[in-house]
């Protein structure tokens, strides 16, 4: 089983959107028995809450489920469980590094999946309100990530 964790600040906008989008793509490709996806935040303001209404609205628009998703914090055991830990911006990466176990883990930054994009961080729609732009970036990046996982982890089996 390949495990993917998306990380943002509060775990109610970007990372749950990425979790839902990638999970949907995995289900469409019938790979749910081989890849799991989760998301977490580095700040504790929203623990236990459902995704932000803007995230829910854009996911509903695209027919993507976010059922049973609740915000949680990145935990030390995540560094042992997840092969892919993908941060939405540099600040998230710095915060993950401060968690015991995080300093040694391999982190990816979401926008590295989209090297042709001018943006180098996924904008936080909690502050910008730009949920459509974030969805477009996440949708494109999740396509790249899924192909990467298939090539790196599943074709070797």
Automatic annotation (TrEMBL):
Classification via SMART domains: LMWPc
Coiled coil: none
Catalytic activity, as annotated: O-phospho-L-tyrosyl-[protein] + H2O = L-tyrosyl-[protein] + phosphate
Keywords: Hydrolase, Protein phosphatase
GO molecular function, one term: protein tyrosine phosphatase activity
Record bears the keyword Hydrolase: yes
Residue ranges of every copy of the Phosphotyrosine protein phosphatase I domain listed in the record: 2-148
Pfam (any one): LMWPc
E.C. numbers: 3.1.3.48
Protein family per UniProt: Belongs to the low molecular weight phosphotyrosine protein phosphatase family.
Official protein name in the record: protein-tyrosine-phosphatase
Organism: Paenibacillus rhizoplanae
